[in-house]
Amino acid sequence: MTFSILAVDGTGAIGSAICSSSPAVAARCVSLADGVGGAHSQNVTDPRLGPQLIDGLRDGRPVEEVLAWVVDSTPDIDYRQLLVIDRDGRSAIHSGSHVLGHHGQAQSAHAVAAGNMLARPDLPQLMVDAFEAASGELEVRLLAALKAAIAAGGEEGPVHSAGVAVVRDAGWRVTDLRVDWADDPVELLDEILVETWLPQRDAYVLRGLMPAGAPSYGVPGDE
Predict the structure, then answer these.
(1) Under 8 Å CB-to-CB from 168, ≥6 apart: which residues?
(2) Residue 223: per-residue pLDDT
(3) CA dihedral angle for residue 126, residue 79, residue 97, residue 132, rounded to 10 degrees
(4) Are 8 and 88 spatial neighbours (Cβ–Cβ below 8 Å)?
(5) Which residues of the chain have pLDDT under 70?
(6) Which three-class secondary structure state does DSSP give residue 102?
(7) Is the Cα dihedral 178, 179, 185, 188 positive or negative?
(8) Whose CA is closest to 28, among 52, 14, 11, 44?
(9) 167 close to 33: Cβ distance less than 8 angstroms
(10) What's the rounded Cα separation, in Å, for the pair 144 and 136?
(11) Taking the C-alpha atoms of 5, 198, 13 and 209 in order, what is their torsion angle to the nearest 10 degrees?
(12) How far apart are the first and last CA of the chain?
């Protein structure tokens, strides 16, 4: 039903990439906070759990303690799959006993990945390996992980939605791209990210932080 990765890089950026057979997966499963960390609530999704994990990280608690706190206090936790990462790349995972189909999880120094209803249980490890092997912007490396998962078979059935999001130091998601329903959402997301969004991303951040000195939009009447 879902495979995903959370990761950090040396710039202080924290990011997420996620893909599912269900619609609008990125809208329901992803929580990120500048300078704090990221969380995913997936499988039989409870969108309340990601913000709870972020709140625990914000309090300065270790990731394992934060995850245990949410797991121990949540009814029906056996149906949930949770991923959490802090700003330094420390991570933790919960996969309940009722997580669907073939499922797996993997961690590295900078990333954590997990999934359910997978074509193969080692898919999260392939995602982490692809992320660590990739270079460039965090968004590009996260997409490399999704593309590696798709190349290895992805889910047991066709996927339809995907998203990539990154926070850095602006106070909002400097990247927040979603494909909510398509036949090949990762390919479409990659096209949007590389060809349209990344060349303009930093200009939009400047417009938010310093509008007087930011570049124009290049449309009629914009000076």
Answers:
(1) 11, 12, 13, 14, 34, 174
(2) 53
(3) 20
(4) yes
(5) 219-223
(6) coil
(7) negative
(8) 44
(9) yes
(10) 11
(11) -140
(12) 47
